[in-house]
Design a protein that fits this description.
With about 290 residues, the chain is an alpha+beta fold. Helix content is about 45%, strand content about 20%. It is built from ten helices and seven strands. Strands 1, 2, 3, 4, 5, 6 and 7 form a seven-stranded mixed sheet that branches.
């Protein structure tokens, strides 16, 4: 028995209120950083990432993900270059005058001075800001270039370091851009479908059928991004069934993320496990069949 149309319609919806609130939070943090003398000479960009930026938010209680991207220096991956190109890059490059570590420390100091040290927890990948009227996870990062040809052939992303000093690379701007393209190519049905599948995940978690930690929202969106546009039909019941059938009968182990660069699955710090993906797809099929 299929999930009824009323439930799917309810799960597909979103409220503009939390998104507008997230934008205000981003602007508040951006204004504080840009008005600080401590960061007066730093060039950086501030923007939202995650479900608020992608319009796939399903629970307004989620912390707002704000990216603070340093543009005065960049990290690199030179593995796609020839030995001669790597030598050229090394000859033309030097140590930055202002490092990511210094920038992150300065951002922490500014946030603590503006919102109070008790409201700022700098330990972790993101700086947690728990103010009286907003909550935000502030990710301080720097530009990252994946070179495939030197000097002008590279993918632009971001890089930061976790507590074990492992570099984590991601591509939030490409993720947002490609999500918008997918939204257009599916007649504005992609993002509401992501919301349906995320709310279904929450339903399964609430009913002890899944562990939420094993099925992050980010990877649900990446899975659905790879489903062909033709599966995104007008009728929501028909659409969800077609998407589920595709996921349940397709080998997705070699799929790329929505950014079009990184693999969804692997052993890296920003990758997923196929076992957890299989658990999620199987639980979704069972939910559909036994609703």
């Amino acid at each position: 028995m299929a999930i009824d149309s009323g439930t799917l319609e309810s799960w597909s919806q979103y409220s503009s209120g939390p998104i507008e609130s997230a934008k205000r939070t981003q602007n508040k943090i951006q204004n504080e950083l840009q008005s600080s003398d401590r960061l007066a000479d730093a060039n950086f960009d501030t923007y939202l990432q995650g479900s608020y930026a992608n319009y796939t938010i399903v629970r307004a209680s989620s912390d707002v993900d704000v990216v603070i991207q340093l543009e005065d220096m960049y990290y690199v991956d030179l593995s796609g270059l020839t030995p001669d190109e790597r030598d050229k890059w090394r000859r033309n490059s030097g140590d930055p005058d202002y490092s990511w570590n210094e920038f992150r420390s300065d951002v922490v100091d500014v946030l603590e001075s503006r919102f109070g040290s008790a409201a700022v927890d700098p330990v972790g990948k993101a700086i947690e800001v728990d103010s009286s009227n907003f909550n935000a996870d502030v990710l301080v990062c720097a530009d990252h270039r994946d070179y495939y040809n030197y000097p002008n052939g590279y993918h632009s992303g971001i890089a930061f370091f976790d507590l074990s000093n492992t570099k984590i690379v991601n591509y939030p701007k490409k993720h947002i851009s490609k999500g918008s393209t997918k939204q257009s190519s599916t007649n504005d049905r992609f993002k509401e479908t992501v919301r349906i599948f995320k709310r279904a995940r929450n339903y399964l978690v609430d009913n002890n059928a899944l562990n939420k930690e094993n099925v992050p929202s980010y990877f649900i969106e990446n899975l659905l991004y790879n489903v062909p546009d033709g599966r995104y039909t007008y009728d929501k019941q028909d659409r969800v069934l077609k998407v589920l059938r595709y996921l349940n009968t397709t080998d997705y182990s070699d799929w790329s993320c929505q950014n079009g660069i990184t693999d969804i699955f692997g052993s890296g710090p920003a990758q997923w496990n196929t076992r957890y993906a299989n658990q999620y797809v199987n639980a979704m099929v069972d939910l559909w069949d036994n609703w």
